Amino acid sequence: MNPAQSRWSPQVWIWGFVFLFLSHAFAVFWLADHQSPSPSWQKPPAFLYLSGAADTDLRVTETTALRDPTLFALPHPQNFSGGAWLNFHPQVPRLSNWTAPPEWLSLPVEELGKSLDEYVATNRPSEAPLLAALRAPRAFEVRIPDQPILTNSLVRVEGLLASRKLQFYPSLPNVPHNDVLARTVVTVSVNSAGVVESAAVAKESGLKSADDRALQLARAFTFEPLAARDASAREMAPPTFGRLVFTWNTVPPTNPVPATASLP
């Protein structure tokens, strides 16, 4: 057996490692700073101070003024511009309803009509063209109206009803009136057989008798029946709506001769 191996047995190595560990731990605890750490939670400072002495009140005021969050945001007696802010008094503008009086432009009396005199003096025509224009014969001007002269009353069909052929309509009379009348518009509904079911005045002409006459004439209109496979399908078809526009021809009213009383 080797004498070196018998000198350094495993027990010696274990006890040597334990000794070194304990020595290191003892040195750490011996040389460390043993001050007590400050707690993470601190008691909040007092926010209400009560004092009866003047010096204590002054010291409390100076202490709280430095912790004021409005020290540099709002006017404060302890900030850099406290005096200027506290002593500033803005001037309030005064409101009034005063208006300046009108100032008319001066116009001398001697200048009235001066512009017309200058125009006549600088634009005076010669006598020869003026006399020639007066002596020349003028051609007669014949004006033809844009629309033909109405000699009798007319009717026009508008809307969806214009697609159906008109089979019968009564003759339109002239309306006795001293003035021109507007058009009378009558709204009608026609069934599948071509008969007017309902009629109503949508726009008046200005004369009630003419509107009543148009309503009476509209009920007498007859249109072409709808094309259908059988009679039942024709009866179930919806009505056709449209408008009848009456254009009235007015004539002077005749005054009846009053009857004379017979003598006894």
How is the topology of this model organized?
Elements: H1 3-7, H2 10-31, H3 54-65, H4 82-86, H5 114-122, H6 127-135, E1 154-159, E2 166-168, E3 175-176, E4 184-190, E5 196-203, H7 208-218, E6 222-223, H8 231-236, E7 240-247, E8 250-251
Written overview of the protein:
It is a single chain. By secondary structure, the protein is of the alpha+beta class. Among the domains are: 33 residues, no CATH class; 98 residues, TolA/TonB C-terminal domain. It is 30% helix and 14% strand. The chain is built from eight helices and eight strands, in the order H-H-H-H-H-H-E-E-E-E-E-H-E-H-E-E. The protein has a four-stranded antiparallel sheet with strand order 1-7-4-5. A two-stranded antiparallel sheet has the order 2-6. Strands 3-8 form a two-stranded parallel sheet. A hairpin with a 5-residue loop joins strand 4 and strand 5. The longest helix is centred in the first third of the chain and has 22 residues. It is elongated, with a radius of gyration of 59 Å. The C terminus is likely disordered.
